[in-house]
Each structure stands twice: as structure tokens, then as C-alpha cells.
Amino acid sequence: MLRKSILLPLLLVTVTGMLQAQDINQLVANAKAKLGKVNDYEAKGRMKTNVTFLKVPVANVKVYFKAPSRMKIKSEKGVSFVPKGAVSINAGGALGGNGYTIIDAGTDKVGNTLVRVAKLLPLDENSEVVLSTVYIDPITSLILKSRTTTKENGTFELEMTFSRYAEFALPDKVIFSFNTKDYKLPKGVTFDFDDGSTVTQANKEKQKKGRAEITFSNYIINKGVSDEVFR
Fold first, then answer.
1. Domain for residue 201, yes or no?
2. Does residue 7 lie within any of the structural domains?
3. How far apart are CA 80 and CA 154, in angstroms?
4. pLDDT band at 27 (very low <50, low <70, confident <90, very high)
5. Which domain holds residue 155?
6. Which residue in 85, 119, 151, 207 has a CA-CA distance of 20 to 30 Å to 13?
């Protein structure tokens, strides 16, 4: 027991040291290269939206993506309550282009996985994105989590789990988390509150946190997606 109690901390220190020794710029480049395997995709999934006080039904959705950062979510039950920024700010979007400074923010854990953390500061002062933070699994080069702060649409966080489509860096499940107070409801659109009232621009401050979870059933990868889908 004594040997185990000594060896475990030593093993953790060794693993952490190995992770920290890897160059953060190379890790970001590896993650970007993995994301670059996908030019476009069409995916089917189930979307569950959880917004304080709101009743939003679970919906079957289709998600369309086209490089570098065009994305659209279509719900079979009408409007999906997803902030405008969340559908365009994805893991790939955070690493798009080369116009940012990469800062090594050390290590962290996402679930049980030890990850490296990189902060990306845009070089363009007029960029809509203020700061992106990505949490990279150094073994698989997959981004397991990202947090993006924008000027107009608040802060968004993505958490992703991978399995069947990990080779293409496409998640089996993705969770969007966002501050609903930073979201501007589409003009003329209302939702029911759980207490029977309705959401309007005047009372939207009643909302605090939002979360949208998509579980994907399948992807069609690199078969072409029409530009018409995004119009």
C-alpha cells in the first residue's frame, strides 16, 4: 500500500510534466489539422434545450456545416432557441485562420481527461471575438471544450464527447452553454414560460442561463452541402 501511495503521485507528476513539455503552438496546429479533414457535413440529431423558465420541446434537427465556419441548425418543430453566435462559433471556428496569439494556459481536466489549455487572442482589434479558450486532449488532438467571449453575443461554452466520428473531430454529443441575458430574441418570436406567461423583450431578463444539447445519430461527411442551405 505504501509503494502504491508513493507511485501514484509520482505517476501523476510525470504525466503532467510530459503534457506541459509539449509545445502549445504544435498542439493547436494538430487540433486544427484534425478539424481540417472536414470540408462539409450534414448531420441528424436530437436537440434538447434548457432555458430557465422556458418550455422548449425536444426536437429532431438537421445540422449543416461548410468550411470554414458556416453552420445552420434546422429544427423539424420550428425555431430552435440557440443564440446566433453559438451556431457560428464552434471548435473549428475558434481555430480558423492564423490571426491570433496563442498563450499557454497550462493544464486542466475535462471529465477524467487531462488536457492542455490554450488561450487565443485575436490580432484584429475589430474582431467580434474577444477571447477563445480551447481545452485540447494532447493524445487525440481533439478539442473537448471551448469557451468564446464575443463583443455582441456574450460568452458561449461548448463541451464535446467523441466516439464514432473522432477521426474527423466530429462529436457524438455537443453541449452549448450561454448567458440568455446576452441573447436578443428574434423579432416577433415568443416562447411559453413554465409559469404560463410569455417571453418578451421586456421580461427576458428573467432568464439567466441557457443550455442546448445535441446528440447526433449520424453524419454525412464531405459529400457537398449546397450554399442555398445557409441562405
1. yes
2. no
3. 18
4. very high
5. 23-230
6. 119
Number of domains in the chain: 1
103-139 tens-digit pLDDT = 999 999 999 999 999 999 999 988 888 999 999 999 9
- Residue 213 corresponds to which amino acid? E
* Cell numbers placing 2: 505504501
In a domain, 5, yes or no: no
More confident residue, 210 or 162: 162
The whole-number pLDDT of residue 11 equals: 46
The tens digit of pLDDT for each residue in 157-173 reads 999 999 999 999 999 99
Find the CATH number of the domain harbouring 204: 2.50.20
Q: Which of 145-149, 150-154, 171-175 has the lowest mean pLDDT?
A: 150-154
**9 domain residue, yes or no:** no
